[in-house]
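Pilot study result, target chain (326 residues):
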Amino acid sequence: MAGTVEVASGDPPRSEATADDRTGTSPSRRRRFGISRRNRGDFWIFLLFALPNIVLILVFSYRPILTNFYYSTLNWVLGSPIATSAGLDNYVRFFSGDRAVEVLRTTAIFTIATVGGSIVLGLGLAVVLSRPLRGRTFARASVFAPYVLSGVGIGLVWSFIFDPTIGVMAIILRKFGAASPQWFNDPDLTLVMVIIVFIWKNVGYCAVIYIAAMTAVPNDVLEAASIDGASPVRRFFSVTLPLLSPTSFFLLMTVTLASLQAFDILRIMNPLGRGTTTLMYESYLQAFLANNQAGYSAAISSILFIVLMVLTLVQLIFVERRVHYT
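Predicted structure:
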């Protein structure tokens, strides 16, 4: 009949809701609000394992960052019980000082050279060590070994190698009638020297990561490109390299962060920082080797933290768009 609604005989009337529905404990109501006994159990297990780490990260990572920002607003000499508020004077002092341009230029050159050199050379080594060569496993271990060595030890060994009087490089050059460059006296050569050592230490890390990524490149895609007549070089740049873009993006972020925070090699090979003073090392110099200016040093550390945050966000927003995850 027109104007009437027929109710299926199997549907329960609304007035006959179960006791679980009225108390809110029925399975359908729990699913509606995303709560179930299993979810609650998973949540407590997650909290049991994650909470200690979250507390440690808050106490030992985020709290020092906030404390450092507070110290950067103080006029405070390290060790002194008295500190006065300075507002943003420490930041103004850095950017208006004579050393700001030199420190930022050195930081940019060191970061670009070490990140680019480590990734490009690491990719080249990965291509070579991915081939079925005799002694490949030993070669991979030898390339990766410097990454796990102490930066202090590496700095001491390479200081001896670069020594213009008794160093290994000077002895070899003298055999060919050439004089050794003054690596420690010329600030430009000193910067080149620490860049070489930093790349040598980190190139194995990039190579091993790239080797692992290359094993995941599908062979059928490479075979299809080969059947289409693509040369090995064309297959590498058109197929393999785009498929390695997630790995390249990961290495770009991690090596950039490591480069901006480099300290041990700079400290051992050039303690006074002539020509190799990055933001990280300038913060150390101002706090411990100059006038113990803890507040000024904290301001430089805060600037370094902001630079790291901006570079990370830029990489996540702009560079990741060019990454192919499939």
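One observation from the pilot: The chain has a mean pLDDT of 85. A full batch analysis is planned for the follow-on phase.
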